[in-house]
Amino acid sequence: MFDDQDTDRLIAAMRSHGVTTLEIETDGAMLRLVLPAQAAPPPASTPKREAARSRDIGAFLPRGGDDGLTALGEGDGVQAGEVLGYVARGPVRVAVTAPVSGRVAGAPPTPGTILGFGDTVLEIEQP
Amino acid sequence: MIEVLFIPPGATVQDLGRDGFWSQGLGRAGAMDPLAHRIANMALGNDADAATVEIALTPARLLFPQGGAFALAGAACGARLAGRPLPPVWAGMAKAGEVLDLGPMTQGARVYLALPGGIDVPVVLGSRSTQLREAFGGHEGRFLVAGDTLRARDPAAEPAARDFSLTMPLLHDAGGGIVLRALPSTEHGDFSESARRAFWSTGYTVTQQSNRQGYRLDGETLDRPASGELRSHGIGPGVVQVPGGGQPIVQLADSATMGGYPKIAAIIEPDLWRIGQARPGDVLHFRRVDLSEAAQAARDQQAWLDDLQMRIDDFRNRQKGWA
Amino acid sequence: MASPSLSMIGSRAVLFHAPCPFDLAHQQRFWAIADHAAQWEGVREAVPGMTNVTLLLKDVPPDLDHLSCDLTALWNSGIRKEVEGRLLPIDIAYDGPHLAEVAELTGLAIDEVVRLHSAPDYTVYAVGSHAGYCYLGGLNPRLETPRRKVPLPRLPGGSLSVAGLQTGVSASMGPSGWNTIGSTGTRFFDPARQPAALLAPGDRIRFNPVRVQA
Asked: Which domains occur in chain A, in start order?
C-alpha cells in the first residue's frame, strides 16, 4: 500500500492540519494512524504565491492525458478555479484547482507521486 | 436551474426509460448512453433514474442564473465553465451567472448534464423520458430550444463532494473501431454464409441517417437467399435488421415496438451505450457471443457500477472527514 | 412441417413463433400464449405480434431450453383465447390523399372502396409499431394494394391507410409507406387516459363513414 516515505508524508500532512487520527482503506488493505496532539501548524506560503493543494490522498495525475485538457507547464497562465491536475485513487480523480488566477510557479509533481490531504501540489504566482 | 442560451436540435430530457407499456405499442425511450447518464447522476449523489439532459449536438451554451451544482458525463466536447476547461466527466459548482459552454464533440456522440436531485419535469406513465413521436414526457415532449429553463428537483442540495472527475471505460478499441457484442437473432441462419462472415468480421460504418430511433450502417451487403415478407413481430433496442437493400439498421432507444424486417443479430444491453456514443463515420465491429457471455457481461457491468458507487461514497466520506 | 422456434431479439427479449396460417383462429392461440407467459416468474411483458409472441424478460436467460419447452407445450396444447372484445365504432372521413389512387389500383369506384372498407368489423390482432397503433385483420381482399414506392415522411395521427392485406389507423404523426384513404379524430393513444392505449388485442373496430371526398 504506502511505503515508509509515503507514510511520513501522510504524518506530516496530518500534523500540519492538526489531524490526530486517520484511517485509510485502499485496495483491500487498511492503514490507521494515530498521532499525539501537536503544536501550531507551520507558517503560510510567501505572500505572492498561493498553494494549490491536494484535497485527498492518492497519486498525482497530470492534466492533458485523456481528459481533453491541454498539458500544464511552468509559467502557464491559469484562472482561479481552473483544473490543474488530479489526485487519483482508483477511478476517482479529485481535481487540484487554482486558488487564484496567475501563473504556474515551478513544475507539476512527477506523475504517480503520492500526495496527502493538504499537500501543496503547485504554487500559483499572482501578478 | 439552467437556462438554454443556445442549443442545436436534438437535446432531450431522459431517464432510464419507460417500462411496462410495450403491449400498448409504447417503446422505452430513455438515455442512449445509460452508463454516462448513470455516472452523471452518481457523481452528484442522485438516484440512477433521476432525469438528465441528453445533448446530442453541440456547440451549446447553458446559463446558471443562480449557480448550483451540476455534473457532466459522456462525449468529450471541450466543456468550459466561465472559460475554465473541464474534463468530460465532472461534478462541480457553477457560480451565479456562469455559463457552461459545450464545444464540438471530438469523441463520443452524447453529453449528459445532471442537476441535484434530477431534472424537474413531470412523471408521465412512470418515467421522465421524452417520447418524441408521441410528443409527451421529458420537457414538453420535445427537443430543447433557446430560452427553455430546466429546474433541479433538489436545488438546495449542497453536494458532499465536488470538483472531481472519474475514469471511464474506453469507447474505441486499439484499432479505433467500436466493438459491439451481439447474439445471433431470428433470421441469422437465413443469411448466406458469406453474409454471416461479413457481418461478424468486417466493419460497418455509421451513416448520417442515424438518430435516437436507429442507426443506418454501411458496409458489405448482407444477402438472404430465401426472401419473402415476414409477419410483423416484436423488435427493440439493439436489434440489427436487414431490409431488402442488404444494409443493416440498428434499432435504438426510440425503437418501434414492432417491425417486419429480417433480424441478423441483437446487440447485448451492456454494449448499447457504445453504439449510443457512436458518431457518423465511426466503424462498428460486431462480435458474436452466446447467452452465458451476455449474462456475464451484464454482471460485469453491474459490478463495475457498484464499485464506482463505493469509491465515490468513500470519497464523499473522506471529504466530510476533512471538513 | 417446420416447428415452433424461439430466438433472441435482445439480451432480455425473446421471440416465439410457429409457422401457421395467418387467420384469427391461429392469432387467438398466440393471445392465449401471451396471457399465460405474462404470468410467469421472470417475464416482464408478453406482447402478441402477428402470429408470434415477444417476451420481455427480467434477466438474461441462462439458456432457452425452459422457455422453449414451456412455450412449445402451450402451442401444442392448442389453447386459444376466444375474446368477445368490445366493438368500437370509429367515425372516418374517407378523404385521404390516396383514395382515388386506391380506387384506380383496385378497379373499383370510390364509393365501392368506401363501402367495402367500412363493411366488416375488424379485429385488433396486435398493438405495436407505434403507441396505440392497431394491426387489424379482416380487410376485404378486393382492396389489396401494393405499398408505396416512396413513403410519406409525415402523416398526421388519425390517418387511415391500406397496404397489402392490411389496414390500420396511425395514432401519432409519423412516416408511412401505406396508401392513406381517410382520417379520424379518435385518439388511439392518450398518456392521460387509463389505459393509455384505446384498444387491445381482441377488441373490434367498425369504421363509420361520415364523409367521402376523393
From this structure: 1-38 (no CATH), 46-127 (2.40.50.100)
**Residue in B136, B257, B270 nearest the CB of C128:** B257
Q: Model ipTM?
A: 0.94
> What is the CATH code of the structural domain delimited by B178-289?
2.40.100.10
- Give the three cell numbers for residue B189: 441462419
Reported as a pLDDT band with limits 50, 70 and 90, residue A34 is: confident
Nearest to B87 among A57, A83, A92 (CB): A83
Domain boundaries, chain B: 2-150, 178-289
Tell me what the pLDDT averaged over chain B comes to.
95
Q: Does B266 touch chain C (CB under 8 A)?
A: yes
Dump pLDDT digits (tens) for C162-182. 998 889 999 999 988 899 999
Among left, alpha and beta (phi > 0; psi -120 to 50; other), residue B246 is left
SS3 string, A22-58, reads EEEEECCEEEEEECCCCCCCCCCCCCCEEEEECCCCE
C 143-202 residues inside an 8 A Cβ radius of B: 164, 171-174, 189, 191, 195-197, 200
Q: What residues does B218 pair with on adjacent strands?
A: B205
- The mean of the pLDDT values for chain C is 95
Q: Domains in chain C, ordered, with CATH?
A: 5-77 (3.30.1360.40), 87-212 (2.40.100.10)
Q: A77 at the B interface (CB within 8 A)?
A: no
Nearest to A94 among B85, B164, B167 (CB): B164
pLDDT of B314 higher than 50: yes
| A46 interfaces chain B, CB cutoff of 8 Å | no
More confident call, A27 vs B235? B235
Handedness of CA C156, C157, C159, C161 (dihedral sign): positive
